[in-house]
């Protein structure tokens, strides 16, 4: 199956396909994020995002606002 379009057609459930790739990665951070998403732990996901941005010297609220503004144009 060398044709990318054929490969995409073979993927019946894109969400499950992506989850399988993430799970095979074995990265504990990804596994934790997936677990939070599966549990609908939006507060935990938001805290993760805020901490990640803070570690990189960025303001989560400002960056999120900029991100959302991209879709309003």
Walk me through this protein's architecture.
The protein is mainly α and 73 residues long. It has a domain at 29-37 and 44-73. It is 75% helix and 0% strand. It is built from five helices and no strands. It has helices at 4-10, 14-25, 28-38, 42-55, 60-70. The model has no long low-confidence stretch (mean pLDDT 84).
Produce the secondary structure layout.
Layout: H1 4-10, H2 14-25, H3 28-38, H4 42-55, H5 60-70
Features:
73 residues, mainly alpha, 5 helices
Total beta strand runs: 0
In percent, how helical is the residue content? over 70%
**Broad structural category:** mainly alpha
* Radius of gyration based on Cα positions: 16 Å
Listing every helix as H and every strand as E from the N terminus to the C terminus, the arrangement reads HHHHH
- Low-confidence parts lasting 5 or more residues at pLDDT below 50? none
Give the averaged pLDDT, no decimals: 84
Counting DSSP H or I runs of 4 or more residues, the number of helices is 5
User: What portion of the residues fall into strands of 2 or more residues?
Assistant: under 5%
Morphology call: extended
- Characterize the main sheet: none
- N/C terminus separation: 39 Å
TL;DR?
The protein has 73 residues and is mainly α. The protein has five helices and no strands.
